[in-house]
Amino acid sequence: MFQFISGSLRRRSSFIIKGLRGNPSKNLCSSSICDADTIFALSSGHGRCGVAVVRVSGPASGLALSRLAGRAHSRTVPRTAHLCNLVDPRSQELLDRGLVLWFPGPRSFTGEDSVEFHIHGGPAVISGVLQALGGLPGVRPAEAGEFTRRAFHAGKLGLTEVEGLGDLIHAETEAQRRQALRQMAGDLGQLYHEWSQRLIRCLAHIEAYIDFSEDELIEDGVLNQVDISVSQLQKEVERHLQDGRRGERLRSGVQVVIAGKTNAGKSSLLNILCQRPVAIVSPVAGTTRDVVETHLDISGFPVLLSDTAGLRDSLDSVEREGVRRARERVEQADLTLAVLDATHLPTTHRGVPDFLSSHLRTLLPGEEDPEAAARRCLLVLNKSDLLTEEQAAEVQSALARARGLPPACLMSCQTGHGLDGFMEALLRQVKALCGDPLSGSPSLTQARHRAHLQQCVQSLGQYHHYRDLDLALAAEGVRLALTSLGRITGKVGAEEILDVIFRDFCIGK
Fold first, then answer.
1. Highest-pLDDT range among 155-159, 217-221, 348-352, 418-422
2. How far is it, in rounded angstroms, from Cα 194 to Cα 149?
3. Does 30 have pLDDT greater than 60?
4. Alpha-carbon span 15 to 2, nearest angstrom
């Protein structure tokens, strides 16, 4: 595209690319990381187990291998398990007989020399090995997430991959595991990297036009191509942001709230879903005064289920506070299970849809869009066992003909009738809220990703705003957008968020 590029442009482009695409180990490496001690930790978790893994990383890893296992790392086959006696370097007392594996850098998890001791998982054995390592010069216990932090600084993992690893460690359901593995594999980071490369090209073209357009050394149409590329990228980022928070919801759990009037069977539904007596069930109306929470795994999807106080007017100050909290939870919920007493439905099936619509307007007062209400609500018509077969059939017929209502299930918490249908409907709603973590473009998983991407979109808008007014300011918009993407992947300004990311990592990872 360029007929000629001078040395000044090469220097300028080199600065842009190196500053935003450089090696994290060079850009972000603090003195504490570059001049790191050798660290060690139990990496397999605490408690009695058959096998425990103690990981060591750093320049003194070879010393640890020779002093405890009596093996010179130069004569140890890398990444091969060797059966050895492990002894205390000070007392020469036998600590255990186990396996050692030597990982010379940079072909290790951290990029440093590393060694793993696979020992028996008794507390006394683990304690003995950890104390022996702690007595070696230049060797200290690792802090939470320090192994992964070193892997990041060595360029072994990008920041989104580090976050995926953290999510994998904390994953409790199958869907969370799938999403975390996909992010740890680099799918999300690769998407942002590809966007960054496109912005780098756009920025280089703009800078070239600024420097050399007057000398007629730039082909016609360069800025038009930049306009097209920036517009396309802005649309892609906006579509990426319009994901309904599926990835974030899957990572943290779907907020499901059981709400309704008093004595409709909300606590009974909670107990059925949890398969244990979590909440007190009583025929006395208003038994539940506060929010009762529990975590569930519904076919691999994480759910935070909340039972709330019955919605009614009350003179009791405690119950009024419970009702206030219930309404607050409904406003925050991803999905509301609106529980009604089926015996309170109109006797004529024609009046059922209007009755339910009126009830939903009371329960979801801030939701004007019926379709939006349908996506975040599931009607549960409880106590079907108190209806005659004819009444139940009329209700089912009315629900089948109704339009504009959320999915509805006629069931009985007392007998279990209709429970299977309710669970299927609940799973469909939860799946729709979370999406399939393995299909389509990778989803956003962190609130900080969303914030930086929103800033990226705003900066690209700055380019369009100043495009015909001041090209230098327009270029600054592209540069700011590139910086925002770099903050997600860790290429720019990662130090300020590292402590937050690694705070929840376990010791030994």
1. 418-422
2. 24
3. no
4. 19
Which element (helix H / strand E) includes 450? helix 447-466
What is the per-residue pLDDT for 400?
Answer: 84
Tell me, yes or no, whether 321 lies in a domain: yes
pLDDT of 41 over the 90 cut: yes
Integer Cα distance of 3 and 78 in angstroms: 51
**Average pLDDT score, the chain:** 84
Q: How many structural domains is the chain composed of?
A: 2
Q: Residue 358 is inside which H or E element, if any?
A: helix 352-363
Q: What are 43-58's pLDDT values in tens digits?
A: 987 778 899 999 999 9
Lowest mean pLDDT among 93-97, 192-196, 199-203: 199-203
- 300 plus 151 within the same structural domain: no
Which residues are CB-contacts of 118 (< 8 A; sequence separation ≥ 6)?
51, 52, 53, 81, 98, 99, 100, 101
pTM > 0.70: yes or no = yes
Same domain, 165 and 268: no
- Is there a single domain that holds both residue 267 and residue 160? no
**Residue 349 belongs to a domain:** yes
Contact of 25 with 154, CB cutoff 8 Å: yes
- Counting every residue written for the chain, the total comes to 509
**CA 225/CA 241 separation, integer angstroms:** 24
CA distances in angstroms from 504 to 7, 170, 265, 308, listed in the order given:
47, 9, 38, 30
Residues of the domain holding 356 = 248-434
pLDDT at 80 over 80: yes
We report the CATH number of the domain holding residue 409 as 3.40.50.300
Query: Residue 214: CB partners within 8 Å, gap ≥ 6?
Result: none
- Angle in degrees, 0-180, between the axes of helices 159-170 and 495-502, rounded to the nearest 10: 10
Shared domain check, 396 and 306: yes
Distance separating alpha carbons of residues 496 and 500, to the nearest angstrom: 8
**Whether 302 and 424 share a structural domain:** yes
> Per the structure block, which two tokens stand in for 391?
């009444």
Question: Of 156, 179, 202, which closes a domain?
Answer: 179
- Specify the residue for token string 């219930």: 326
**Across residues 210-215, what is the average pLDDT?**
65
Query: C-alpha angle 49/55/56, rounded to 5°?
Result: 155
Alpha carbon dihedral 429, 432, 438, 442, in 10-degree steps, equals -140
Please report whether residue 479 resides in a domain.
no
More confident position, 403 or 160? 160
Please report where in the chains the tokens 């990872």 appear, as a residue: 509
**Are 298 and 432 spatial neighbours (Cβ–Cβ below 8 Å)?**
no
Residues 6 or more apart whose CB falls under 8 angstroms from that of 83 comprise 97, 98, 99
| Cβ pair 298, 335 in contact under 8 A | no
Q: Report the C-alpha gap between 64 and 135 in whole angstroms.
A: 10
Identify the domain boundary among 393, 410, 434.
Answer: 434
Is 337 part of a structural domain of the chain? yes
What is the Cα Rg of the chain in Å?
30
488-508 pLDDT per residue, tens: 988 765 554 555 555 555 666
